[in-house]
Amino acid sequence: MAIDIFEFAGEFLTETDKEVFKAAGWGRRAGFGNRPAILIVDVNYNFCGDRPEPILESIKRWRYSCGGVAWDRSIPAIIKILKSAREKRLPIIYTTNPRRKDGFDLGIWTLKSHRSEDQVDVQGHIGNEIVKEIAPEDSDLFIEKRKPSAFFGTPLMSHLSMMKADSLIIVGSTTSGCVRASAVDALSYDIKVTIPHEGVFDRGEASHKLALFDLQMKYVDVTDLDEVLDYLKKLPTGLFDEDFPPSAQAAKD
What we know:
Elements: H1 5-8, H2 15-24, E1 36-41, H3 45-48, H4 55-58, H5 68-88, E2 92-96, E3 141-144, H6 156-163, E4 167-173, H7 175-188, E5 192-196, E6 200-201, H8 205-218, E7 221-223, H9 225-234, H10 245-252
Parallel strand pairs: 1-2, 1-4, 2-3, 4-5, 4-6, 5-7
Helix pairs in contact: 5-9, 7-8
């Protein structure tokens, strides 16, 4: 079911905030699309750490880590979405973001952290690998990105156009960073987006909840895992078989 976003983020909103958004008419439900792809944003060891543990412990070794919330809440939710999506043979798209060893392609992002010299970010490091619990399969699409949005400087929109996908279900990290940037860019391309709140995670609770509040108000639909799973269950199997060759191959296998 759709969540009450005002209650969900209520501890971080003033009463005036709530009144303003309601009076302005924001937050209407846009609805699911007819041909969804699944976009899994940066669920790698950099952002999850390599095991469930408190975030302050995890970031000692993985400076980007969101800690236990990734393992306790979001990865289990993503596993359920993946199971349903694979049964329907929907396109599944993963992103990660390896950097050159000299950090050049990180650009000015290096200016925002005192630990930008940490080696967890460079090409060939395990930090850039998708966690094995949800590792990509041969039929999945894989995109390396260099900036927050999965669309910026990547072939993602070309892939969606070729597959005739009209919508995305986005999960991953971080809610306020790469997930938000990808969702807003999707809107700019007139791609509908649904985000199950359990499937996204951040290193801060305020940034997580307020990012979802803002996204629900102005850009996309924020809902819960059960509603997404129910929607996927009702989709016809093999919807993309003619337009996404790996999907058709999976049916033969």
